[in-house]
């Protein structure tokens, strides 16, 4: 039942065409999203600039293209994550203006300009150079969602002076995303240097007992620095998303 | 070397009492925190209302009392986490005005009123009643750090209507802390209902394959809802702290 | 908004006291459980004989007694699981007619006779004698919920003839609950002998690499016999509950 | 010793050709399956419509074809699970009327019509679109075994209204199979909404700490909703099988 | 149906009192253990000197005493493993001639002399002194079951000469049980020195990453020496049992 | 220093050519294997028919051929395990009379007939058909080392009658090797039926929570049947080797 | 056979009292430690000042006292690790001059002065105050073994300036032992600041996902800084021991 | 700010061109590495012969070549680890004088002769032949960094005499690197035979429960021999690096 149907029902109640008992029965089992819940949701998405995000993994190019056409039709910007290069090629034939970011395996397509709604800068930091693909997923996501983003790469704790010499940039960011594999120590050090929320992203970079990112994840969850929260291994998108929510506040 | 000493040195350089070579040598090995880094740190702590927090576990009452006296002397408010009841008793003999929260095992002592610096409300939600002690650690921490806090307890996903009927409270919060043990599903549902950052706290509530909170932790890290970040198992304090950082923005 | 309020609203719409626009607005944010969802839930519980079940762990005797008094007031039967003996003692002072099952740590209190709604017999089987406490939790739960229950204890696979000699009882059961620790092999063997759903319950019985029931759980999940589904370690209650749902069909 | 041989023996006892001692000796070591145990098993399979199921993994196309020919000769319907596409191609050359389901990697071949013996509908639900292949294995299995099956896909908990709007379909199902990867929360929510047995199937969908389905599995085992039992990761077949057993009751 | 009943049935068949059809029906569902399977089992136990073994853990002293009295009545020797000292005290009041081994927590009671059926010597070796309790469980078990047992304690691999100097004793044993915690390396070294089967027993001795014996277990399973098989952590009894089976050959 | 050199030294001592001090010094640092330890080892290998076994994994065909030529030169029989088919092809060009077993990935080459030194039969049992490659590694190993081997395949516990009907073969074996993946229950059942040592071999057969054989391994270590010892996952060779040691006794 | 016996034998060979054949036989089976291997070991221990170390866990006070008396008799210094306070009390009654370190649970007893053989200073660093007991075990061990030891406590990475301000002390140490629990990041930072070997000691300090030190251990093994090696969780003794070996070089 | 700039500033202070306040401000925020910290770091690298090491994994040949050219320009020697053969080919086109070690996947390029700064010999030992690639990474690293290196391969504990016969080489080494997979026992045995620091390197050699090196790692961490420290699985480079630090002492 949508708003129009609800209006009809109420009119019929007023006119006496529908009895109060009957109306009660209809309203009692009312699927609430038909009452606008989902629609409000929908409005919110358009109003706030959070279009749908497509998780590219496990979807065929055809499925993705079909979703993209629907979204394009509604005038939405499109973000696809975890998209393999071959799939991207297929998609770019139909969407030649889309842009594929090979490092982060993200594809973006814009129907309209992104409005900067983030109030400050999100700083994305990595421990090593091999963490950059995950960091870039966060960067593209945060930019797509209307944030100014800066990056500070390869400042891992084994050469702590590389990080400390950038104290000013650390302090001028409003939200920090810290991406690290191996021993995952960087968010603890960053968290001790700033007064801002730190979103820690473990990466699957490493070998042996790095266990595909578990070691970095555990280290981040056990951070002795306060002000650090963690997302899933390699989840640059998730970090960019929550950083956006925070940066809009 | 503190600022006064630095000033002295520079004066001696100007007056010629200290040669440039000698000054260079002294400045080269300058412990940078003496240049004010740590002091700035210290100032920040006083200025922003983040006094020291004492981790009560593994410290004797004597050690804790000694730290408390120093802090009281500086006029700081005091927060002690993970303090066993017997230790609290000993401490309250010396600090009779302190308040012990037995559920969350937190002790607070105030030398001055807390100033509300959080811009909105932090809503702390639990899945079950046994998750409340961890939630209360977050509540007391967030209040101690100057936030208005509301709670919504026992709204786990097995009775989803309990949560949905509180949609308005969910939507009016600025930051949400969601505390859950067992299958840890609540942050995913909450994250899907709100546009605000959700800090998820897994608890060690459960038995068998709950593995002391690991299951809840993993579920939260894998949340299909965007906008969720996670802290360590039972880490109510950490959730309250990062929620504070966000709520000040 | 409950049904009475809804009726009032509809009457006001009919009489013109409330405009259609206003009614629409009120109904749009209608908390759906107030529309009877929760109430239907409540009715269902009374109608089908599934009173509330109290998880005794992590609740004080006072909290439990308070819930029990409410339930008794509504004429409901009461089942409390995972109740430590000392707590049971306290409770039995106020509820002297309640019965405590020390093996399974379950307490039952009846305000009215249980109606047998289960259509057949639930057979509860254990591999060893040390699995019996978990089995008994399933037995008491299933009986409490209106099932005829039989037991077949200590028929583990190391003496397979003990099980095979009871083929008739296995075949006459409508649902089977198989409880085993250690290597957890029994559900696979039982599942190969019967045409009925088998609910497997791993127990924490064992030592060393039994890992508190994980080995039994894994073995059950990997059962080469079809028709086996698994619940959490030591979760006799859960097995009794789903067996009840099946036996009513 | 089969029934015919047993009859011969008994006749010889009656006629005195075989002494009681000798008969005792022969019967004492009687391999019981020769007494009809295996045969009854065989009869049961034919009578109840549960033909053999072939696990395609680790078998060569030749081995599979040989089994299929035997089964076809006996007039049985054939279900092969976990069959790679290349193997399916080979098989379909010999069995051109067989049908291969590429999503679920299941092949079916019918020698006779399936009789609907399931009393109600089995509803198969997924959290996401990438869980559908596992769900389809359950769907095909349940249909093959004589059930009416409905599906409700992509109703994960991050958009809880998608699920809640289908309350009627949830409530009209007799058995529910809930398939989910990532945080595996959906069975808990579904289990809280219905009075019917819920078979939860964790899938290996996800990345990082989803650990190939372990997180979903653990979450399901720890479900705070009663009435949920779990099968192995990606085990759509097992879920369809036990749901069939239940739906026949 | 036992042998007497079978005889009765056959007599009735001969005499015509029971029809062949009826006899067939009775024999078809014949519980095979009644046909002597269990009895043979029983005979074997008496004949070969393997009386029942009682697992003391999780049984009350009353339950244990009841089993012991039955066994004593049948003239069997009794072995109880994993028996806590307090339980042993209670039991020894009723069985004053029983012997309790406090290190290995084993209790033995003899109604008759043990006959040496083991053909050679079982040598029980430990890496350290803290492994001795587990080793003693193996020693008492093997002696109880009729073996000559020698011991070689505290010959861990960090002082390899301690082991090598006992080469003759190693070579004169027929079966070797090697008990080790921590890094569990001893069975590999022993296995490389002898031509006899080595039963490796990991113990829970150690701390930190010894993980209660898991490290030792894994090391033993990965032994680069051939001729090593492994039992559960701390399972001295199991090692003694299988060593007995081998030593009788 | 070998025996000849020792003799020389002693002669020189006797003749006075070497002083006692000098002899002491030489003997004190005597590499003991030169005293014959390694040689005895060598003799033992030739005398008992245990030629070297080559682990094919991680060796190039060239390395393997070089070892084989040395061994062939000494008249030894050769067993190579875990040899990939492509490597086998290369090897068979130089050793055309060698035999490659593709299922078990074992290659054998005989310079002389194997002498049957095993006193009885080793019975190799599998739970399923996909366990056969591992079982065959045990079979070939045991035959190579001079045992009579029988096999009993596909008798898993879900159809327990398949196993029970072979009771006689079970009982006539001297050593049993039981190979199973998935839930790994078969060794427990077999161990309860026989009086002989059972060597359990977990296989990596299965999916999801079979965890590449860990579940089967854990189940076997926790066997409720006595008389079972376990080797590494997929270690058919190890099982064949220790079974050989036992069967020679 | 010790050196004296060897001398006797050689003399008898020279004198002809023992034939060469007989001498060969005796020498061939010569337990090599009797040839001085163990004794050299013993000499080395006395010469280099490494007396025996007693692992106190799992030994009774009586056992420990007996070992101590033997050692005292030989004039050795004594170090006992992991000694519970109650045991220490008992021991100090017999050894009143011994010193018990309650934090590190180490007991020392000196029969002679320790000679400083370490060439430089060992610096022991902790991340937090709760790591100090483990650090102290390393300190006492290293001092006992003849090293000059300095400490630098509570300089965890969340306040990185605390560490950096001590750069000179870091650089003047010859070997560094870094002790940390929780996220275990400190050794990586220290390893990046110095040119000396860093021995990392994970501690079991933490809660939730610190997993009793596993997280710290994994982080240390994955250190992005070169020059770091790791010992077992809480193994302060082991760190002190290897640091001693290095410091003597 | 570098030393020259600092000198300028001080001169301006002396001359009065810069006020004391202004100088204070500049010095207070002085990036400490500009004060020479990083430069000292840089100098140290040149002076001590530790050029940069490039981790080849996850870098493109182009990225690596760019780094190499910079380094060559500065006259540094170059070491690249974990470099896949195809990448090495590309690199060797531009650096034809570089040498690729295919076993260890290490590439070296020398602009100047390595100076032997290690004071003694580093002995690299392996348990098996398949451990050699990891060992070679340690060998090449240690040689590159100026050490004399010897090797002792395939002396695993299952044939302990192979190791013992090399006692002299063991004792003459100054640092020992022990590389082992499977049960990882070798470092414990070596650690018991020598007085020198042992760096243990677990390798991923093995199958089944070797878990890609975890078993070896755990065994090494639990070594009953003192004087052993451990690096990450397959981390030959790390072992070579810390051994170098020790060997320079």
Task: Please characterize this protein's 3D structure.
The structure is a homooctamer of 249-residue chains. The longest helix of chain A is centred in the first third of the chain and has 13 residues, at 3-15. Chain A is globular. Chain A has helices at residues 3-15, 20-28, 37-48, 61-73, 85-94, 132-144, 160-164, 167-172, 186-193, 214-221, 236-247; strands at residues 53-55, 78-81, 99-101, 106-109, 121-126, 148-152, 175-180, 198-202, 228-230. The first copy, chain A, is built from 11 helices and 9 strands. With 249 residues, the first copy, chain A, is an alpha/beta fold. The two termini of chain A are 35 Å apart.
Compact overview of the structure:
8 copies of one chain form a homooctamer. In chain A, about 45% of the residues lie in helices and about 15% in strands.
Instruction: Give unreliable regions of chain A as ranges.
Output: 28-49
Helix content bin of chain A: 40-55%
Largest interface: A-G, 34 and 34 residues
Based on CA atoms alone, the radius of gyration of chain A comes out at 23 Å
Strand order of the largest sheet of chain A: 6-5-7-8-9
User: Please, what is the average pLDDT of chain A?
Assistant: 84
Assembly annotation: homooctamer
Topology, element by element:
The structure is a homooctamer of 249-residue chains.
Chain A: H1 3-15, H2 20-28, H3 37-48, E1 53-55, H4 61-73, E2 78-81, H5 85-94, E3 99-101, E4 106-109, E5 121-126, H6 132-144, E6 148-152, H7 160-164, H8 167-172, E7 175-180, H9 186-193, E8 198-202, H10 214-221, E9 228-230, H11 236-247
Parallel strand pairs in A: 1-2, 5-6, 5-7, 7-8, 8-9
Antiparallel strand pairs in A: 2-4, 3-4
């Amino acid at each position: 039942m949508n708003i129009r149907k609800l209006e009809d029902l109420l009119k019929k109640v007023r006119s006496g065409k529908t009895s109060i008992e009957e109306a009660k029965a209809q309203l009692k089992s009312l699927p609430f999203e038909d009452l606008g819940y989902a629609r409000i949701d929908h409005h919110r998405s358009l109003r706030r600039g959070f279009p749908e995000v497509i998780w590219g993994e496990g979807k065929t190019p055809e499925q993705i293209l079909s979703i993209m056409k629907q979204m394009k039709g509604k005038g939405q910007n499109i973000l696809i994550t975890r998209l393999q290069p071959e799939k991207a090629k297929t998609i770019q034939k139909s969407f030649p203006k889309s842009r594929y970011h090979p490092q982060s395996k993200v594809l973006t397509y814009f129907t309209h300009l992104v409005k900067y709604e983030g109030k400050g800068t999100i700083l994305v930091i990595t421990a090593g150079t091999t963490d950059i693909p995950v960091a870039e997923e966060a960067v593209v996501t945060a930019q797509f969602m209307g944030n100014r983003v800066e990056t500070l790469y390869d400042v891992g704790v084994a050469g702590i002076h590389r990080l400390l010499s950038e104290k000013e940039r650390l302090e001028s960011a409003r939200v920090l995303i810290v991406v690290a594999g191996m021993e995952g120590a960087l968010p603890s050090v960053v968290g001790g240097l700033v007064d801002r929320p730190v979103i820690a992203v473990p990466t699957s970079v490493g070998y042996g007992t790095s266990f595909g990112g578990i070691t970095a994840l555990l280290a981040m969850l056990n951070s002795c620095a306060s002000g650090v929260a963690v997302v899933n291994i390699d989840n640059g998108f998730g970090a960019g998303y929550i950083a956006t929510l925070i940066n809009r506040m």
